[in-house]
């Protein structure tokens, strides 16, 4: 996937990222530029929908269309964008709190709808924008400003959840590996259906996990079968390793494929819409 | 006038069934006799069974309210008599199934006991057809030609000849049974030439209005009394090239509406109070990011889950003031079924023109009642589309939130030129986050300037009336009214005038932004001003007082049912006495 720097420039906005130097999110932004460049997508054909968090500022740093929505609400907005214009390439960007806490319900239903979009989950294991509270992916023993004595709850594993909720492409990467991340994003965009890319994206300011993840990640072994759903769930939840690569790949009709099918069925049963005729039929 | 002018109420248990259909057939039949109709219905709160009621009011002139009491009461069972006897006219007609003997019927009333159950169950072995026997008897007793009911049965069950036949048999049996009775009451139907009318419910009119306005995406979540809009959209919107969505909650519904509108489609959602509460954060966002959208809130009664099948006008505060920050929005309220259609069209037009969230405040009573309305000619509608940026003009480059005189800036649409980020953070003209002191001030002013544009909509679209002033320029009593209460007010002021009282009414369709000067002038021109509304806290009265600095007399009721004409008339009489005394 050769990318020349000029093509990448096409996606970079004049707004300079406000992230802390060293923030994992820079790696994801670079990877996204590389992926868009590799696919040669015109910026005006791409819509980046984000939630609220450090990660939420993502769209403004690109020259694509953006929708900086509300905390947790990327999926409803992305669904609406796709309902209005299924031809657009939609990328959603959410933090771990955004996606799995306040937006958990939407996340589940977006997976099951199999909307053809790419979800970049920027996981830093805490709430960063609000300055360091526990999130659903914080480790149970992790001490944060809101869990000074550890947490009451167990953490959740987003890839396993997505697979079981019905996502058809689930991958994991590490933001420090920008090029690998870009390759995965390309596959995710090309995949027809809901694609989750779970990106370990450390927050250097509140919980620096670079060293931890450098030790913990491992590339999926040769011969790994991403079509084995339960195998993928086991791999995703492996307590020893954070496996990176495409964990799961399945096939189901997408939301966008269903739109014309439903229209066709409605027309077959009831005929094409003619409002004046409908009104006239309501005559006394 | 007992000829062609009366109110019929039909009551019974939903377990037995057929009650609402009896009323609907009556309404259609009367309309086919050239009369105007207005129906009102209440549903049981029970999950299974319970008393349902439908009331049909008819007259040769347009009717605006459901009628205070039943001239003709049809009771399927004993309990329905007990439930409705208090709203039965003392010299009215009671028609009941003779399987029970109603107790305490006033001696002045006419009573016809007819063995409907026996005819249907035993003679015809078709218990489902009890309502058809009732219609047959109605036909015999009041002169409504049976051929009208026959025609309705044939078209309703077209293509199912067995059902048509068994219902025609039941109709005839009921007719013949009632023919044996001696007619003792004065009510009578005198068919007139057919008028060109449609019969629609409020919710149906809203669906048609949305499609007429160009709605392409609808998103909703089931909730009484708006679920039938979701169902209609899921069934019909695809036929118009649209995409309806049943989503996981109301937050998702409004989020999808905003996403769709951002991507260039006209979009709407429909809900009731609880769902509307969930939407407020996104409504605030729509105002900030300047995304056109239409939100229908069919109000039901009470806080929390309240009384889901009952009506109220108590979400006005939430519609006008809900949402965090300074949120410009437009709030419209239809008051008739016809209004439901046109207000929905205007709601889309205003949303597109001003790039604002537009909230339609309907209510349960209006949502599910039916009326005869004038035919709708789609060609006569003016449809407004948003100002789209197409890559032209703007030598200094495209700015999504460009400061303009009206406050409206051309909108770029994904797929086309002008890529920008729809931003919920305070932003500058380019849409880049910006928290400078002056910028927040300037951008807030820009967003609120669009409300002035909204108030000028009437000038450019003469068909729309954001308010209507009925009656004289000056009067002893003025009535300010909004939403479905307007019907009862219209009839009450008519009756008050006939009594020789000096009265005028101001009917508001645009609740927010308020036509402040008109309301001020109205209040200052009247001796006393009454503001009746179906809420406890006097919500519109507060808005009016706050916006005009003038006082009105609040009249509030929260019984779950609409005002009666008589209640409003009494209040007008009281105020008229005070006004005359103070003159
Ligand atoms: C409804 C609502 N509740 C709370 C907040 C405050 N808030 C802003 S960002 C955030 C959490 C951010 O954490 P995460 O989603 O993990 O993103 P990150 O900042 O780590 O990228 C919260 C709670 C908000 N903006 N909206
Ligand atoms: S606070 Fe953490 S997540 Fe936010 S920009 Fe800084 S390093 Fe990144």
Quick structural overview:
The complex is a heterodimer of chains A (284) and B (583). Chain A has helices at residues 5-9, 24-39, 74-84, 96-102, 104-113, 158-165, 178-190, 210-216, 229-236, 255-270, 275-281; strands spanning 46-50, 65-68, 89-95, 118-123, 126-127, 133-134, 169-174, 195-200, 217-219, 242-249.
The CATH homologous superfamily of the largest domain in chain A is named Thiamin diphosphate (ThDP)-binding fold, Pyr/PP domains
Structural class of chain A: alpha/beta
Q: Report the bound ligands by name, code or SMILES.
A: thiamine diphosphate, iron/sulfur cluster
Number of helices of chain B: 19
Give the C-level CATH assignment of the largest domain in chain B.
Alpha Beta
What is the rounded distance between the termini of chain A? 67 Å
Percent helix of chain A, as a range, is 25-40%
Helix content of chain B: 25-40%
**Biggest beta sheet attributes of chain A:** 8 strands, mixed
Q: Helices and strands in order, then pairings?
A:
The complex is a heterodimer of chains A (284) and B (583).
Chain A: H1 5-9, H2 24-39, E1 46-50, E2 65-68, H3 74-84, E3 89-95, H4 96-102, H5 104-113, E4 118-123, E5 126-127, E6 133-134, H6 158-165, E7 169-174, H7 178-190, E8 195-200, H8 210-216, E9 217-219, H9 229-236, E10 242-249, H10 255-270, H11 275-281
Chain B: E1 6-13, H1 19-32, E2 36-42, E3 51-59, E4 70-75, H2 78-84, E5 88-97, E6 110-114, H3 116-123, H4 130-142, H5 146-156, H6 161-179, E7 198-201, H7 202-213, E8 215-220, H8 227-236, E9 243-246, H9 250-262, E10 266-271, H10 273-289, E11 293-299, H11 316-321, E12 330-332, H12 337-354, E13 357-363, H13 364-368, E14 370-373, E15 421-423, H14 437-455, H15 457-460, E16 467-470, E17 475-482, H16 485-498, E18 503-508, E19 510-512, H17 516-525, E20 526-533, H18 539-548, E21 553-556, H19 565-582
Parallel strand pairs in B: 1-4, 4-5, 5-6, 8-9, 8-10, 10-11, 11-13, 12-13, 17-18, 17-20, 20-21
Antiparallel strand pairs in B: 1-3, 2-3, 7-14, 12-19, 16-18
Helix pairs in contact in B: 1-4, 3-4, 4-6, 5-6, 7-8, 7-12, 9-10, 16-19
The complex binds thiamine diphosphate and iron/sulfur cluster.
Iron/sulfur cluster (SF4) binds at residues 19-20, 23, 25, 54, 124, 128, 203-206 of chain A.
């Amino acid at each position: 996937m050769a990318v020349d720097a000029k093509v990448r420039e096409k996606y970079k906005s004049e707004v300079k990222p406000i992230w802390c130097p060293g923030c994992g999110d820079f790696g994801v932004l670079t990877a996204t530029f590389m992926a868009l460049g590799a696919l040669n997508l015109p910026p005006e054909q791409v819509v980046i929908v984000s939630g609220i968090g450090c990660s939420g500022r993502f769209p403004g740093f690109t020259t694509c269309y953006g929708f900086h929505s509300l905390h947790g609400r990327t999926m409803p907005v992305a669904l609406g964008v796709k309902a209005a214009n299924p031809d657009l390439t939609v990328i959603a960007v959410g933090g771990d709190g955004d996606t799995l806490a306040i937006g958990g319900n939407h996340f589940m239903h977006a997976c099951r709808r199999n909307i053809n979009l790419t979800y970049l989950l920027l996981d830093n294991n805490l709430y960063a924008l609000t300055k360091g509270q526990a999130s659903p992916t914080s480790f149970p023993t992790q001490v944060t400003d809101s869990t000074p004595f550890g947490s009451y709850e167990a953490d959740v594993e987003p890839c396993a959840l997505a697979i079981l909720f019905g996502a058809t492409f689930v991958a994991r990467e590490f933001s420090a590996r920008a090029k690998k991340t870009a390759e995965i994003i390309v596959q995710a965009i090309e995949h027809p259906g809901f694609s989750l890319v779970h990106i370990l994206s450390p927050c250097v300011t509140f919980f620096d996990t670079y060293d931890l993840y450098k030790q913990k990640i491992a590339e999926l072994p040769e011969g790994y079968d991403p079509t084995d759903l339960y195998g993928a769930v086991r791999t995703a939840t492996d307590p020893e390793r954070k496996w990176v690569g495409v964990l799961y790949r399945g096939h189901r009709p997408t939301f966008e494929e269903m739109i014309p099918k439903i229209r066709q069925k409605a027309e077959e049963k009831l005929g094409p819409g003619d409002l004046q005729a409908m009104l006239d039929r309501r005559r006394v | 006038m007992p000829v062609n002018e009366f109110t019929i109420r039909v009551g019974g248990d939903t377990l037995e069934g057929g009650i609402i259909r009896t009323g609907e057939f009556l309404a259609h039949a009367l309309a086919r006799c050239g009369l105007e109709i207005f129906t009102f219905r209440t549903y049981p709160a029970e999950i299974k069974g319970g008393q349902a009621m439908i009331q049909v009011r008819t007259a040769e002139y347009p009717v605006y309210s459901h009628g205070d009491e039943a001239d003709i009461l049809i009771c399927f069972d004993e309990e329905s008599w007990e439930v409705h006897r208090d709203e039965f006219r003392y010299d009215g007609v009671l028609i009941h199934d003779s399987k029970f003997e109603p107790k305490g019927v006033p001696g002045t009333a006419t009573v016809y006991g007819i063995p409907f159950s026996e005819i249907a169950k035993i003679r015809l072995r078709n218990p489902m057809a009890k309502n058809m026997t009732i219609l047959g008897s109605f036909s015999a007793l009041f002169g409504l030609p049976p051929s009208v009911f026959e025609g309705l049965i044939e078209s309703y069950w077209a293509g199912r000849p067995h059902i048509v036949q068994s219902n025609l048999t039941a109709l005839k049996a009921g007719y013949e049974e009632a023919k044996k009775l001696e007619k003792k009451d004065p009510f009578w139907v005198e068919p007139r030439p057919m008028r060109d009318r449609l019969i629609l419910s409020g919710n149906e009119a809203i669906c048609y209005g949305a499609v007429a306005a160009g709605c392409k995406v609808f998103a909703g979540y089931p909730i009484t009394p708006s679920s039938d809009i979701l169902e209609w959209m899921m069934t019909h919107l695809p036929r118009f090239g649209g995409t309806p969505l049943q989503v996981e909650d109301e937050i998702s519904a409004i989020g999808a509406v905003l996403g769709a509108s951002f991507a260039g489609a006209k979009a709407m959602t429909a809900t009731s109070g609880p769902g509307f509460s969930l939407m407020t954060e996104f409504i605030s966002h729509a105002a900030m990011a300047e995304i056109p959208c239409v939100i229908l809130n069919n109000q039901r009664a009470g806080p929390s889950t309240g009384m889901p099948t009952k009506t109220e006008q108590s979400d006005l505060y939430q519609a006008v003031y809900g949402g965090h920050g300074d949120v410009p929005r437009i709030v419209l309220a239809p008051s008739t079924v016809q209004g439901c259609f046109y207000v929905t069209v205007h709601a889309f037009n205003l949303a597109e023109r001003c790039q604002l969230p537009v909230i339609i405040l309907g209510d349960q009573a209006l949502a599910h009642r039916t009326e005869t309305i004038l035919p709708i000619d789609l060609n006569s509608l003016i449809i407004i589309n948003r100002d789209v940026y197409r890559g032209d003009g703007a030598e200094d480059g495209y700015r999504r939130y460009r400061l303009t005189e009206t406050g409206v800036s051309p909108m770029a649409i994904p797929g086309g030129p002008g890529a920008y980020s729809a931003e919920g953070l305070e932003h500058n003209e380019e849409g880049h986050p910006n928290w400078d002191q002056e910028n927040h001030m300037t951008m807030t002013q820009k967003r609120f300037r669009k409300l002035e544009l909204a108030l000028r909509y009437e000038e450019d679209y003469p068909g729309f009336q954001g308010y209507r002033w009925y009656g004289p320029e000056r009067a002893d009593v003025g009535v300010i009214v909004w939403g479905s209460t307007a019907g009862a007010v219209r009839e009450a002021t008519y009756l008050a005038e006939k009594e020789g009282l000096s009265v005028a009414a101001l009917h508001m369709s645009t609740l927010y932004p308020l036509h402040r000067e008109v309301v001020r002038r109205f209040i200052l021109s009247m001796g006393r001003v009454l503001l009746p509304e179906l809420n406890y806290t006097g919500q519109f009265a507060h808005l009016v007082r706050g916006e005009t600095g003038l006082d009105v007399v609040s009249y509030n009721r929260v019984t779950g049912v609409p005002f009666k004409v008589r209640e409003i008339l009494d209040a007008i009489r009281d105020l008229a006495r005070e006004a005359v005394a103070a003159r």
